[in-house]
């Protein structure tokens, strides 16, 4: 990747952080988006504690996949070690998002998976959204929990117990989309639960819906 490509990635991350604000997934300075730098053992991530309004391409931080600062004047996100662990152990992942979005985090506070009771869930997540273990912030324990929980799951989202949401994708934009969709289905599943017991979708239908969404839906 050239310096021009890296500059483009930094600009894209500023725009994607604004998407988190636009969709109501973050409060104050909480939450972050990162992106793997193609062809290099590097990632770009939000600086720690900086307002979304103040983010610029120049403020984005470049780290290696051990979480060490490579380029940038600011300290990287407190979740950097978690993001780095995910990239090291999931080579297909090109983007990671973390939010404390309200409805999804409420399910995380209950340590309860979001059941697959909506066709939109079958489409995007291929089943229930699983719960990962409780882990303290700052080290790679959260990243380890994300990787271990998502192993064998089709879901690009995991609810970390008593914490919030982590999503992954082939690129940062896809990870942001998964975070948006996670909050959307968490809200609807919560509303359904308030009315009674939601009706699960049969596994064969989940499989069919997920395959159609991956291989037929949209423009080719």
Notes on the protein architecture:
- There is one protein chain.
- With 220 residues, the chain is an alpha+beta fold.
- Helix content is 42%, strand content 15%.
- It has helices at residues 3-22, 80-89, 102-109, 119-125, 141-150, 172-195, 203-215; strands at 32-37, 42-45, 61-64, 69-71, 95-99, 131-132, 157-160, 164-169.
- The radius of gyration is 17 Å and the shape is globular.
- In DSSP terms (H or I, runs of 4 or more residues), the helix count works out at 7
Order of helices and strands: HEEEEHEHHEHEEHH
Shape: globular
Q: Summarize model confidence as the mean pLDDT.
A: 97
- Report the radius of gyration as a whole number of Å: 17 Å
Identify the strand order in the major beta sheet. Answer: 4-3-2-1-5-8-7-6
Secondary structural class: alpha+beta
C-alpha termini separation: 27 Å
Q: Describe the biggest sheet? A: 8 strands, mixed
Give the number of DSSP strands.
Answer: 8
**Poorly predicted residue ranges:** none
Approximate helicity band: 40-55%
Strand content: 15-25%
Give the SSE map:
Layout: H1 3-22, E1 32-37, E2 42-45, E3 61-64, E4 69-71, H2 80-89, E5 95-99, H3 102-109, H4 119-125, E6 131-132, H5 141-150, E7 157-160, E8 164-169, H6 172-195, H7 203-215
Parallel strand pairs: 6-7
Antiparallel strand pairs: 1-2, 1-5, 2-3, 3-4, 5-8, 7-8
Cofactor: Zn(2+)
EC number: 5.1.3.4
Protein name: L-ribulose-5-phosphate 4-epimerase
């Amino acid at each position: 990747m050239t310096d021009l490509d890296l500059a483009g990635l930094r600009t894209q991350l500023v725009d994607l952080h604004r998407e988190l604000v636009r969709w109501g997934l973050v409060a104050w300075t909480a939450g972050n988006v990162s992106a793997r730098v193609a062809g290099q053992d590097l990632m770009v991530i939000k600086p720690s504690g900086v307002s979304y309004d103040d983010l610029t391409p120049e403020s984005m931080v470049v780290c290696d996949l051990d979480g060490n600062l490579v380029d940038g004047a600011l300290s990287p996100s407190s979740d950097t070690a978690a993001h780095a662990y995910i990239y090291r152990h999931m080579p297909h992942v090109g983007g990671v998002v973390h939010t404390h979005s309200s409805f999804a985090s409420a399910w995380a506070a209950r340590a309860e998976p979001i059941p697959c009771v909506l066709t939109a869930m079958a489409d995007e997540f291929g089943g229930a959204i699983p719960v990962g273990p409780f882990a303290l912030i700052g080290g790679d324990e959260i990243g380890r929990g994300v990787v271990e929980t998502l192993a064998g799951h089709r879901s690009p989202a995991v609810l970390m117990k008593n914490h919030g949401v982590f999503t992954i994708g082939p690129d940062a934009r896809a990870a942001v989309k998964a975070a948006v969709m996670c909050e959307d289905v968490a809200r609807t599943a919560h509303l359904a639960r308030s009315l009674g017991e939601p009706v699960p979708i049969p596994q064969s239908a989940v499989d069919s819906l997920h395959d159609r969404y991956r291989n037929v839906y949209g423009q080719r």
